[in-house]
Write a structure and sequence with these properties.
By secondary structure, this protein is α/β, with parallel strands linked by helices. It has 10 helices and 13 strands. Helix 6 runs parallel beside helix 7.
Length: 326
Amino acid sequence: MRWDQPWWLLVLPLLLPLALWLARRDAARPPAVLWAGLMDLGGRWRAALLGSLGLWPWAALLLAMVALGRPQQGVSQSETETRGVDIVLALDISPSMAAEDFRPLNRLHVARETAREFVRQRRHDRVGVVAFAATAFTQCPLTLDHDAVQELIQGLDFGLAEDGTAIGMGLATAVAGLKESKTPSRVVVLLTDGQNNRGQIDPLTAADIAKAFGVKVYTVLVGRGGVVPVPVDDPIRGRRIEMVRMDVDEATLAAIAEHTGGRFFRAQDPEALAGIYSAIDRLERAPIKSIEFREYRDLGPWLLGVAALILLAHAFLTTTLGFRVP
């Protein structure tokens, strides 16, 4: 409840004493009933009704004064301060992400699910998604439509780009999606499991670009490295698991994070990866203002309607049951 013109309510303390005085004065005058059928009404009820008639016009006037104050029911417009960030998730979808050192799940599956959970928890943030293998592409630009972001993350899979790991291209593409952002805090979460071996931009050059645009990069090395189980499709023997050596470049990922003011993480199991996203969630918060617009319903016309009904009832009763002779 709110009042759009509350100063009209200042008249009410002046009207109340006057209304009571006039009502008492009128009650002292004896009524003469012209409508004979009403004489059969109970004496106590009739006396109370007649005694209150003098107050009815004043009650209508008071309702009208309240209506002039324009009481409104609804919820107010409010400006609240929340905390949000513009974030681009850069996810490696190269074939090495099929390694099953998170058995029974592969690296990409775990990366997708933890990224989706991360997006669910960042309801005030704009989130975008970049995927990379031998090349990089934007899967989803910055948006507040988190349902769409989660669906597009789920759609990431092997074969959407040529084989290879272009970490520098993935990072540069993610930074390009943030360069027009006006939000004070802009972040890239770069998740990969290997070494840069493709692309026209090397990872440290991409880190320089990120720093130039004020973008902080959190790097996540996923998987154990070394010899890991990898599914292989053999045309003769069918699908089987082979132990394959996969080298990682921890030093480069740590250098990217340090150069841009972020942090480097290493995830060797699903729980650790989820914990990393939680740590990033705690680290990256920036003040933003959220304005909420809400509608009001004016109660004044309803109060004026009630006042009119009171006056009509008063007019009827004073010409019948409460008619007074001079």
